[in-house]
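Side project, low priority. Logging it here so it doesn't get lost.
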Amino acid sequence: MSNPAAAETLLEWGIAALTLPGETESGDSHVVAPFRDGALVAVVDGLGHGSEAAIAARAAIAVLQRHAGEAAMPLVRHCHEELRRTRGAVLSIASFNGLNNTMTWLGVGNVEGMLFRASATALPQREAILLRGGVVGYQLPPRRETVLTVARGDTMIFVTDGIRDGFAEKSPIGRHTGNVADDILARFARHTDDALVLVARYLGRPP
């Protein structure tokens, strides 16, 4: 019998974010939403910055929270329909399944993602999300989700384009997720755009 409470301990995560100087709201947002035997993790970047970007990001986050337990591709379609009335957004989502120890992820736009393996013998040691060009709410490309097997300790990082290249050079394995997020933001933020880093570690279902 499944235990809905178990989903809340499926992941541990940390967030670090920076609003573009001069703006009062960030267009970058995130969600970590547990559902029965799983959890959805997503990062959304509203186009541009300021209040209009924040409106788009909030609209996408609300959809993702409402439909967290659905499959990745329908989730993106729901966001696309909702964001038609906004300036649009780019996003990456990852849905963790605690029953079969898998992660399904999908990206539209340029929210980069990297999964690091906890086991030293795992090959490959890291895998990058497959991103498709487009804008959710404006031009949705043909989508392709990827399903990966995950093990306890495997760690995923999502970053918006306010983070420079090179953020994934140092492995997060064995480090506190919040510290990893803070370190990436401090070292790689461009300071010319909103920036957000989300680090999520898979713990698996409790026994």
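Brief comment: Residues 51-66 form the longest helix (16 residues).
Revisit when time allows.
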